[in-house]
Amino acid sequence: MELFLAVTLGLLFGFALNRVGATNPQNIINMVRLTDLRLMKTILLAIGISSVLLFGGLMLGLVDPSHISVKSSYIGVIAGGVLLGAGFAIAGYCPGTGLAALATGRKDAFVFVIGGLVGAFVYTLSYGWIQANTMLFDKIAGGNLTLVATGNEKYEHLIPFFSGEVLGVAFGIGVIVLSFMVPKKLW
Q1: Distance from CA of residue 172 to its chain's centroid?
Q2: In this structure, are residues 174 and 47 in contact, taking their beta carbons and an 8 Å threshold?
Q3: What does the pLDDT read at residue 167?
């Protein structure tokens, strides 16, 4: 059942990516260049709605906090984020949009996905060397840490006196409002 749900949600997500134009790399490049921000507005709206639903669900007891997993923060996460962002801006794809574009038959997406798989394979082969000879796997602030309490007490939080659920809902509402304030283009 879990596999069926994962495939179904993946197909729906890919369909949504295609409908909003995220499978066209020119739309992503235009967003990064700030010449067409319609896709950014959609992304912000999705982040805001997801935040309100997740943290509202936590507040109402509809979401079990033990299902929330906080990944360790490493220096390499920042380096990887920079690399992913640069690749996103250059290629016009991220892993999700690349796979959805491949499903639509785009040849450039095929090259992108193959490049990603080759990169993952090279990373797998070099993982041990990277771990032993670089600082990329050094934990930031102790590793598993959240900004505020989320109801899952197995993770430390930096601000112990503030409700993470309230902050998450407020953040979501703020991002929703921001999505409507962003102009369609800056240039």
Answers
A1: 15
A2: no
A3: 84
Distance CA 29, CA 21 (A): 12
User: Which pLDDT score is estimated for 151?
Assistant: 60
Please identify every stretch of the chain with a pLDDT value under 50, giving residue numbers as ranges: none
Q: What are phi and psi of 139, to 5 degrees?
A: -70, 145
Grouping H, G, I as helix, E, B as strand and the rest as coil, residue 156 is strand
Other beta carbons within 10 Å of 134: 12
Place of tokens 């102790």: 142
Backbone angles phi, psi at 145, to 5 degrees: -150, 140
Residues contacting 168, CB < 8 A, separation 6+? 51, 52, 54, 55, 58, 150
pTM across the whole model: 0.79
> What's the confidence (pLDDT) of residue 140?
74
